[in-house]
Amino acid sequence: MNPPLVLSLPLDAPQAGESLHRWLYEGLRQSIVSGRLPADSVLPGTRTLARQFHLSRGTVLAAYDQLLAEGYLVTRVGSGTRVSRHLPDQSAKVSVAPPASVLTQRPVERRPKGPWINRLVEHVPALPLALSDVPPRPFLPHRSDIRAFPIDTWRQLHVRQLRSSRIDALREVNPAGLPALREAIADHLAISRAVSACPEQIVIVSSMQQALDLCMRLVAGPDDAVWMEDPGHMGAREVMLASGARVVDICVDCDGMRVEDGIREAPAAALAYTTPSRHAPLGVSLSSDRRAALLQWAIERDAIVFEDDCDSQYCFAAKLTPALRSLPGASEHVVFTGTFSRLMFPSLRLAYAVLPLRLVEPFKRAAAVTARGANGIAQAVMADFLAEGHFDRHIRRMRKRYASRAQAFETAARRHWQGLIDIPAIEAGLDVVGQLVRHDEAAAVERLAAAGIDASPLARYSARHRHPSSLVMGFAPFDEVEIDLSARRIASALRVAA
What we know:
Blueprint lengths: L19 H14 L12 H8 L3 H14 L2 E4 L3 E4 L16 H5 L12 H7 L27 H11 L17 H14 L9 E4 L2 H12 L5 E6 L3 H9 L3 E8 L2 E2 L1 H7 L5 E4 L13 H14 L2 E5 L25 E6 L11 E4 L2 H14 L5 H12 L2 H27 L4 E2 L8 E6 L4 H10 L5 E2 L12 E5 L5 H18 L1
Parallel strand pairs: 4-5, 4-7, 7-8, 8-9
Antiparallel strand pairs: 1-2, 3-10, 5-6, 9-10, 11-12, 12-14, 13-14
Helix pairs in contact: 1-3, 2-3, 6-13, 7-13, 8-9, 14-16, 15-16
């Protein structure tokens, strides 16, 4: 790694009566001793530093000479003047970075103010703010297999966008999104999800959570009631709580969200969040009767249903349920969202919202105010990826791969987990909820973590309603050999604890 090159060095103003030589010398010395200028840093030339501080070159030379004589600086032929690796007062050196403990200390005075701060710090369930950059351990949920992504195809499309003939791709993108991508999404959804919408009704965002955040700002005021699935998507619940709305947690059973409970508990709610095609995390579908009831409630109350189309593309055994947005009368009451980040690779950060006509202009303006728009180059590449059929081919290939791994996971569970974890048939998605037979969630998670296995307790997704002790387990990133070996480790860990 090359040593840092110091291009500019701001210093405090000289004290009254202090000589310029003394001021420059002390400023440089303190910067070195404190660690602000690390060892081997290359300092600016004397002429450059003289111009920066409006000093004579002689003043700078005098300061450098004194620091050289005292051992703070060294000179090397052809490499300029650098900070010495061995300082004369090394024992006095302190780090300018705050100790790690400062980040975890509870603030005592001058706490941040604002409507979100208490909710985010005290009331919102923990969601990882930073994810590890190493491959996930079995069986961490909500992860895809990025190893199978056609990176060479993506790179070629990316290079195409960076040709000099496409210099316009570097300009600022409309906050609603690139027209070519919105058109490609409209075409794709019409075929794959029976969702009919013109490109002007689609807005490109960075994530489902951003789309939900903007919807909450537009349709739900402070203290308005909103329905949230319980258990449900942790990120969605955090957005709803942070908005200041009154979150009403609606129980989910084998037929999906209990719409009748929502109508009874909060009939005047402004918005309902749901994952009707495949519930996150239970994996069930919202029944046709409850779909009809939810839509009828939204029409009668002029409410918004926020449809998160989670994992609908990965359906293995069951027939894919049509999108709620595709039902008659839904277009003016359902916001339909999907994300490419889960289907492609997480760092892509591209998603979309299909909006009722009355929300299009407000949503576009809100997107312009808060985020200005998603990455334009990534949008252009994604548009080509969709239009040229690469996306459909990728999804078909991954659907087969994940179906094989789901089957391997079921087989491993039957072989190794009898009397420990009950796994249902996996018909869709990237993860599954396994019910613990004789362990509580906390103890099982702790025992598995010690054995190198990651799983999420179902209680982490719940706010009010309690379900049998269960684990949310992901199988998608792991091949058949990894699945079987990890299943054996789970069996050993839980049998020892039994």
